[in-house]
Specification:
Blueprint lengths: L10 H4 L13 H10 L3 E6 L4 H11 L2 H10 L1 E6 L4 H15 L6 E5 L5 E5 L13 H14 L1 H16 L13 H14 L16 H14 L2 H16 L13 E2 L7 E2 L2 E2 H18 L2 H18 L7 E4 L2 E3 L5 E3 L7 H8 L1 H11 L25 H16 L6 E6 H17 L3 H18 L9 E3 L2 E2 L6 H18 L3 H17 L32 H16 L2 H10 L1 H6 L8 H12 L3 E6 L5 H11 L7 E6 L19 E6 L2 E2 L6 H7 L3
Parallel strand pairs: 1-2, 14-15
Antiparallel strand pairs: 1-3, 3-4, 5-6, 7-8, 8-11, 9-10, 11-12, 12-13, 14-16, 16-17
Helix pairs in contact: 9-10, 9-11, 9-23, 11-12, 11-16, 12-16, 13-14, 16-17, 16-18, 17-18, 18-19, 18-20, 19-20, 20-21, 20-23, 24-25
Length: 677
């Protein structure tokens, strides 16, 4: 019989709806029940594409004896970290403080007041390698709760007090300048891996936000070292196993330093961020590899992640059926020489093995290989390789596919909207722009209420109950601003303004300028979370600074610009120290130092060829964080267009900073030079 999770909108929670564990969703009723029964709360946090979450579920949560023990002695609460990033952040901070590490599944035992006292991540069904079994943990916690309650209460109280002292007060009026950005670049240079690209050792995550900073820094200063690190990292990733050489799109991370073997889950946010990165790299260098990867990644998102309602699903699982009924990580993507022969025949299989580096020994498990792209692919016959790829892709499509998390997350859709809008504009792909508009329409129609308050998630056209957090407001505003620049439709600027008004009134500390991840009127947890550092996505703090700055450039709003500058105080403090973990904040700081530039393209209408050429040139400008407004003379769609006439009847571009403009130009090449194109 299904448990309480059967009514959830989260695919992750629905995966546990038939567990024998009597799961509760995160709500006040669960904690009231724990209080009534005088038992601790067991909190389990994960997400749909999490491999070890599935493993622990199969081993423990589907086991009748384990479930019976949990049901008798605990109130068990299951949380999708992608639906409730605030709950995840607060308790992950406690886990990391107590154990020195974190991860998912996250396992937390707490009092009925939500105060944590024992932590962990994955626990096996039997003790091994010094790790206790899950049953041993359950029994130990129950014993402590029953026999040493005062000790448990004391530990919980001290943890909560420690978390309360971790307030961040870096927001101030001092913005990062040339010195801080130069120090950040030097720090990245020290951590850069010159042989393999990327930063640090294994596991290696795609450094998309750092690459955006490097590209902007190069555009503003001409620093060749910054461009070299960005370009080499992008090439290494694109040639490695972390990139899907057949279907496009990136896996979550590489387990090795060489980008060879990925953790195979594919997340919307990674692909949105990397699609934009490769499009911007092409804009800078003209690299054909960057162009291909940007378009293939965009096509992957539209083909495999777009939902029936027009939004974009969260993820594809790492695991899939290997053909024997077993769910195995990477089964959908890896190849053996024998599988190549079966699909292609002996002659083409030999060529494919050379091209994709498929060997008898293999680079993955059981003699299978992850497809990679050699450095000298030009020596292979292009038409024959394309035929091989098409046949392999068709054959792969007949394998059992990984599961898809159909949950639409507002923030990640905002990232996708920005990436698809810009990629479509750069490469003359109106279908990609239309996909971005479709996702934006869904967010407005379903996720926004009458007060422009944003819901975090939806699924199958049904909006979720969880309120949007700072990253939702900021990333959706960022997407809407990009869409406004690409489409010339001022309504997207208006919607961005609605969202950013909420940021100013509900997420910003008026005294310090610091930002919180949850609104002032949101559910109160044991701590109000705030984190200015990037993780898999831009922090809400940095994303808000960027969107506020872009909106101010479009409108001239002093309050939005002032809020952006105050928020960037954290970049002044942290950028030189931990540049890898505040890349988007550094990228926004580059835009601030450059202005950012405001480009008003006044034309003769969307069907006029000269207007379109001027608009595209403006969009392709490399000036960091530049905003673009396009429309006919006299248009009231954008403030930047006000009182800007045609020049002798010809389309003209006005390039401004703080609404102070240079003389307009009707020359596309002149505009390209001014914007660093």
């Amino acid at each position: 019989m299904p448990n309480r999770l059967a009514q959830a909108t989260s695919p992750y929670l629905l995966q546990h709806a038939d567990n024998p564990v009597d799961w509760w969703p995160w709500d006040t009723d669960a904690f009231e029940e724990a209080r009534r029964r005088d038992v601790p709360v067991f909190l389990s946090v994960g997400y749909s594409a999490c491999h070890w979450c599935h493993v622990m579920a199969h081993e423990s949560f589907e086991d009748d004896d384990t479930a019976a023990y949990m049901n008798e002695h605990f109130v068990s609460v299951k949380v999708d970290r992608e639906e409730r990033p605030d709950v995840d952040a607060v308790y992950m901070e406690a886990v990391q403080a107590a154990t020195g590490q974190g991860g998912w599944p996250m396992s937390v035992f707490m009092t009925p007041d939500g105060e944590p006292f024992y932590f962990g991540t994955y626990f096996p069904p039997a003790s091994r390698q010094g790790m206790p079994s899950f049953r041993q943990v359950l029994e130990g916690v129950r014993s402590a709760w029953t026999d040493r309650r005062d000790e448990v209460s004391d530990v919980a109280g001290k943890i909560v007090q420690d978390l309360a002292r971790r307030e961040i007060s870096y927001g101030d009026t001092q913005t990062p300048g040339e010195e801080e950005l130069a120090q950040a670049l030097l720090g990245l240079t020290r951590e850069y891996d010159p042989q393999r690209g990327g930063f640090g050792g294994a596991p290696k995550f795609p450094p998309s936000m750092v690459i955006e900073f490097l590209l902007r820094h190069h555009a503003r200063t001409g620093a060749e070292g910054a461009l070299q690190m960005a370009a080499d990292t992008c090439e290494r990733m694109a040639r490695g196993g972390i990139y899907d050489q057949l279907g496009g799109g990136f896996a979550r991370y590489s387990v090795d330093r060489d980008w060879t073997v990925p953790h195979f889950e594919k997340m919307l946010y990674d692909n949105a961020l990397l699609c934009r990165v490769y499009a911007h790299l092409w804009r800078t260098t003209g690299s054909e590899l960057a162009r291909r990867v940007a378009l293939e990644t965009a096509d992957f998102m539209v083909r495999e992640l777009r939902t029936g309602e027009g939004g974009f699903a969260s993820a594809l699982d790492a695991d899939s059926d290997d053909g024997t009924g077993r769910h195995v990580e990477g089964a959908y993507y890896v190849w053996t020489p024998g599988q190549l022969t079966e699909v292609l025949g002996a002659e083409d299989a030999e060529l494919a093995a050379q091209y994709f580096e498929v060997t008898e020994k293999g680079t993955f498990e059981h003699g299978a290989s992850v497809l990679q792209l050699p450095q000298r692919e030009g020596v292979f016959e292009a038409e024959r390789i394309e035929s091989i790829k098409e046949r392999m892709l068709r054959a792969r499509g007949e394998r059992p596919a990984p599961g898809r998390d159909d949950k639409v997350v507002a923030a990640w859709n905002g990232l996708a909207i920005a990436a698809l809008a810009e990629t479509g504009a750069y490469f003359d792909r109106p279908d990609l722009v239309e996909a971005a508009v479709g996702a934006a329409d869904l967010l407005v129609r379903l996720h926004l209420d009458e007060q422009a308050r944003l819901a975090r998630t939806s699924k199958d056209g049904r909006v979720g109950a969880n309120a949007g957090v700072l990253e939702d407001y900021a990333d959706v505003a960022e997407g809407f601003l990009a869409l406004a620049s690409v489409t010339g439709e001022g309504v997207w600027l208006e919607f961005a303004g609605f969202l950013l008004d909420h940021v100013l009134t509900r997420f910003v500390d008026e005294e310090s300028g610091s930002l919180y991840d949850t609104a002032a009127d949101a559910e109160q947890l044991i701590r109000r979370p705030q984190d200015p550092t990037d993780n898999a996505t831009p922090s809400g703090w940095s994303a808000a600074a960027g969107a506020l700055l872009g909106y101010a450039a479009h409108t001239g709003s002093p309050s939005h610009r002032a809020a952006a500058e105050r928020a960037l105080g954290v970049v002044k403090a942290l950028g030189p120290r931990v540049p890898r973990f505040i890349g988007w904040g550094l990228a926004v700081a580059e835009a601030l130092l450059d202005g950012p530039k405001e480009v008003a393209v006044v034309g003769r209408g969307p069907d006029d060829e000269a207007t379109r050429a001027m608009h595209r040139t403006a969009l392709l400008g490399r000036a960091p964080g530049a905003v673009v407004a396009v429309g006919p003379a006299g248009s009231d769609e954008f403030p930047l267009l006000a009182d800007r006439p045609l020049v002798d009847g010809d389309p003209a571009a006005y390039v401004c900073r703080n609404f102070t403009c240079d003389a307009p130009t009707t020359d596309v090449e002149r505009l390209r030079t001014v914007l660093g194109g």
